[in-house]
Amino acid sequence: MTLFQQLETLQHWLESQIIGQETLVKRLLIALLADGHLLVEGAPGLAKTKAINNLSKGIEGDFHRVQFTPDLLPGDVTGTDIFRPEDGSFQFQQGPIFHNLVLADEINRAPAKVQSALLEAMAERQVSVGRNTYPLPELFLVMATQNPIEQEGTYPLPEAQLDRFLMHVKVDYPDVEAERKILQLVRDEANNSATAIQRPKPVSQAAIFAARQESINLHTAPAIEEYMVQLTMASRNPGNYSQQLASWIDFGASPRGTIALDRCARAHAWLAGRDFVSPDDVQAVAHDVFRHRLILSFEAEANGINADQVIDELLKLVPVA
C-alpha cells in the first residue's frame, strides 16, 4: 500500500470506532502529519480519550494517559532522579512524557508549574532534570483536554502557553444517527461481534515520517502563502479591514499561527489526496489554528462574540488573491 492508502485506511478505521467525531479524527491525523500538539475542548464522554488511544493502536507507537489533578507535581509528568542507596548515585526515572502519544487529561486542573513542565517538553522536545537533558521520542504527540462545563478549581492556561498548541479543537455532541451507531458499536464490542471492522496493520513510524515529508513538499502557490500571511496580519491590524473587527480583537495571532496554518493546510491537502494546497485547505483549518491565538476585547465578550465568529469575519474580509 502507498503512504496515502495506509493513512486513509487508518482514518476509515478510526472513524468506525470514534463515531460522530470525524473532525476530531481528522485533526488528530493532521497533528500527526504536521508534527504538532492538540488542545481538545469538549464535554465528558465524547470519546476524546478513546480517539487518541485507538490512534496509538493504529500506528507503531506507545500511549500513556496522565490525569491532571491539583496535587500533581512536575516530576510526575517529566520524571525525576531517584536515589540508589546501594551505590549512592542518582538514576533518572522517565515520566509518562517519554511515550509517543500522551493524553494530558483535563490539563486545566493542574497548577501552573505542572502545565509549564508539560508545555516546555512539548515545545523543546526534551526534558531537563538537574544537570542532564533527555530527548523525547522523535514521534511525539500530546493531546490535552479541557472540560468547558466545570471550571471550579481549575487553572486556565495562559495565552502564551496556549500558543504552543498547533490546534484548539472543539468537540460537540454526536447527532441522532451517530448516537444510534454508538449504541450498536458498544453492543458489538460487548458481544465480540464479528461485524466490527478489523483493525488495520499498524502504520510504521517510518511511514509517518515519510508522509510528513511528502506533505511538506506539497506545492503551495505564492498566492496561497500570501493569503495565509494576510490572514495573520489582518488579526493583528484588523482596523485595516473593518472598524467592527478592530473593536473585537485586542491581540492577533503570533508567527506561530502562520506556521501552524501552513503546516495544517499542507497536511489537510495531503489527506485529501492532492499534491497542492488550495484556499479551501487554509479555510478548513483556520478556525482550529486561530481559535486559541486571538485575544478578544472586553467589548466582544460583552456582546457575546466568540473567537469563531471573529475568524468567520476574517475569512470573509481577507481576499484569497
Describe the structure.
The structure is a single chain. This protein is α/β, with parallel strands linked by helices. Helices cover 48% and strands 16% of the residues. It folds into 2 domains: 21-175, Rossmann fold (3-Layer(aba) Sandwich); 218-317, Helicase, Ruva Protein, domain 3 (Orthogonal Bundle), CATH 1.10.8. Strands 2-5-8-1-9 form a 5-stranded parallel beta sheet. 37% of the residues are buried. The protein contains 14 helices and 11 strands. Belongs to the MoxR family.
Descriptive labels:
Helicase, Ruva Protein, domain 3; two-stranded antiparallel ribbon; CbbQ/NirQ/NorQ/GpvN; 321 residues; 5-stranded parallel β-sheet; ATP binding; 2 domains; Rossmann fold; globular
Q: What CATH first level of the largest domain would be assigned? A: Alpha Beta
The H-and-E topology, N to C, reads as HHEHEHEEEHEEEHEHHHHEHHEHH
Strand percentage, roughly? 15-25%
Q: What structural category do the secondary elements indicate? A: alpha/beta
Instruction: Count the domains.
Output: 2
- Looking at the structure, the CATH topology of the largest domain is Rossmann fold
Indicate the CATH architecture of the largest domain: 3-Layer(aba) Sandwich
Q: How would a crystallographer describe the biggest sheet?
A: 5 strands, parallel
What integer value in Å does the Rg equal?
A: 21 Å
E-strand count: 11
CATH superfamily of the largest domain: P-loop containing nucleotide triphosphate hydrolases
* Helix fraction bin: 40-55%
Give the helix tally: 14
N-end to C-end Cα span: 37 Å
Q: What best-fitting shape do the alpha-carbon axes yield? A: globular
Query: Could you give the order of strands across the largest sheet?
Result: 2-5-8-1-9
Mean pLDDT: 92
Unreliable stretches covering 5 or more consecutive residues: none
